[in-house]
Amino acid sequence: MIAFVVHIAAVVPSFGQDDPRQRLQLKLTTSFLFFSMQGQLDMDSAAIMVSEAEHLPYSLYYDED
Predict the structure, then answer these.
(1) What is the pLDDT of residues 7-16, one digit of tens each?
(2) 60: which DSSP letter?
(3) 8, 17, 42, 59: most buried, per Cβ within 10 A?
């Protein structure tokens, strides 16, 4: 599953995007990973994995402007 997240990061680069788009990318990819793992991960762990794989700050998951 980690390879899939890394593959998404390669297809949709996060650098050069503004914060709302990066936040959306992080939240959508985190939700996908969480639901595809069928509850084996909690949402925080999924967010950490996605943020590391896509080189996004983890704080984007919780920070709302």
Answers:
(1) 555 555 555 6
(2) G
(3) 8
